[in-house]
Amino acid sequence: MSRTVYVNGQYLPEEDAKISVFDRGFLMADAVYEVTSVIDGKMLDFPGHAARLQRSLEAIGMTPPCTTAELKAIHREMIARNELVEGLVYLQVTRGAADRDFAYPVGVEPSMVLFTQAKNVVDSPLAKHGMKVISTPDIRWGRRDIKTVQLLAPSMGKMAAKAAGADDAWLVEDGFVTEGTSNNAYIVKPDGTIVTRDLSNDILSGITRAAVLRFAGEAQIKVEERPFTIEEAKMATEAFVTSATTFVGPVVEIDGVRIGDGNVGPTARRLRELYIAESLKTAL
Ligand code: PDD
Predict the structure, then answer these.
(1) Does residue 157 contact residue 136 with C-beta atoms inside 8 Å?
(2) From the alpha carbon of 179, which atom of ligand 1 is closest?
């Protein structure tokens, strides 16, 4: 079935959804994006994703192409037109089309594109059995707090993981884990404390991370926001990742070493259930 894709104010069949070859999103990765998950036809954490989009746009010197209310209406319209029950809405805003030049063009209209992807995000096999990760050097640029579409380095990390028979890679810089290729990374210490890297330009400020840390606090689970090493992670009782599409995804193996007893741990399971149940209460 052909999806309906949003391109610059128009809802089009996917075959007709086109962007200029001069678009700077295509030529320079001069674009930012958001991914919002959908369960039961409703978006989880939409206000967080809309706020982060604003921050990303500001950071690259762009003004938002529409208001948050308009953005929400377009997302809702996309879910309705595509009859999306479970999956995600992808949104990308680029600086627009102009002659190729490293300097930003002046007075160019930004491009905005949205599409939906149906996906079983709740009953995913990786959530049930846990994922294996490898570690690999973090070769990305220094502003990972901006959600840009420069995704070649994380794609290469993910491919290295697949080649090694694993599911994902944790990126390491100066001896410490920054984050996963497309998620934030966590370990659980033997005393039950969750450890995850503190926010800075080095990692993306995950919308799921913020919610999960809030729910962990409410459930009296202790949280330490600081960098950790792969060696510390290998000795943890549990490990997991968070993102809009994995929610809380348990990690059961790091660089071939089993974490805990090699099964999905109680903290990750509990936080996943909490995240889904609590986020659904405010889903739009
Ligand atoms: N990725 N870190 C990185 C590098 C990410 O790409 C993502 C999300 C996250 C988690 O952020 P959030 O909880 O807001 O989804 C952390 C999305 C899902 C993607 O690129 O598909």
Answers:
(1) yes
(2) 2
CA 171 to centroid of ligand 1, rounded, Å = 13
182 lines ligand 1 (CB under 6 A): yes
Is the C-beta atom of 196 inside 6 A of ligand 1?
no
CA of 107 to the centre of ligand 1 (A): 30
Helix (H, G, I), strand (E, B) or coil at 197: coil
User: Which tokens in the block code for residue 34?
Assistant: 């958001």
**Is there a contact between 134 and 255 (Cβ–Cβ < 8 Å)?**
yes
Helix ranges, the chain (H): 24-28, 46-59, 68-81, 125-129, 152-163, 207-218, 230-234, 266-281
Please work out, in degrees rounded to the nearest 5, the angle formed at the alpha carbon of residue 2 by the alpha carbons of 31 and 245.
Answer: 50
0.90 exceeded by pTM: yes
Give per-residue pLDDT as tens, 177-230.
Answer: 999 999 999 999 999 999 999 999 999 999 999 999 999 999 999 999 999 999
At 236, is the secondary structure helix, strand, or coil? coil
Backbone angles phi, psi at 254, to 5 degrees: -130, 120
What pLDDT digit, counting tens, does each position of 88-142 carry?
999 999 999 999 999 999 999 999 999 999 999 999 999 999 999 999 999 999 9
Q: What is the distance between the alpha carbons of residues 47 and 187, in angstroms, rounded to a whole number?
A: 27
CA distance 1 to 13: 10
* Whole-number Å distance between alpha carbons of 198 and 180: 14
147 is catalytic: yes
- Domains of the chain, earliest start first: 4-118 (3.30.470.10), 125-281 (3.20.10.10)
Q: Please list, in sequence order, all residues whose beta carbon lies within 8 angstroms of the beta carbon of residue 281, skipping any fewer than 6 positions away.
A: none
**Ligand 1 atom nearest 181 alpha carbon:** 4
From 147, 158, 234, 281, the catalytic residue: 147
Counting from 1 in the atom list of ligand 1, the atom nearest the Cα of 203 is: 2
Q: Measured between alpha carbons, how far is 180 from 178 in angstroms, rounded to an integer?
A: 7
